[in-house]
Amino acid sequence: MRTLCASTLIGEFFVIGFAGLVAMQTSDVSTGTVWAVSGTAMALSVLLCGMLARPGGVQLGWLLQIGLIAAGLVVPMMFILGVVFAGLWWASVHFGRKVDEARARFAAAAAADAS
Questions:
Q1: 56 dihedral zone (left: phi>0; alpha: psi -120 to 50; beta)
Q2: Exposure b/e, 57-69, CB count within 10 A at least 16 = b
Q3: Which candidate, 64, 60, 66, places its Cα nearest to that of 79?
Q4: Could you say which DSSP state residue 28 is in?
Q5: pLDDT at position 1
Q6: For 34, what's the count of Cα atoms within 13 Å in the CB-facing half-sphere?
Q7: Where are the alpha helices (DSSP H) in the chain?
Q8: Rounded to whole angstroms, how far apart are CA atoms 10 and 90?
Q9: Position 113 confidence tier, pLDDT thresholds 50, 70, 90
Q10: CA 71, CA 66: separation in Å to the nearest integer?
């Protein structure tokens, strides 16, 4: 699960950065505010890569997805990109857990065969 989720978060890192550039040019929000919010979200996306195995890591990822969708209030295209990344996040969590379960079953079967 960690690999899929981390890949999604790194993709979000770049999208957030580009959305910050767009917001800086097209919105009435000050440059400092845009980069304070974008920079915090970018840092959170990278930090979450390391927190995925810890309790609450996936839930914080969902909060980031909600934030991306809410960024559509400043950059309207982020409504669409936020929903796309929320879907990717769901798929990463859902299918990542299935892969982890399959790996655990395979390891248990291999250990049983070895003994």
A1: left
A2: bbeebeebbebbb
A3: 66
A4: S
A5: 86
A6: 19
A7: 2-26, 31-51, 57-70, 77-114
A8: 15
A9: confident
A10: 9
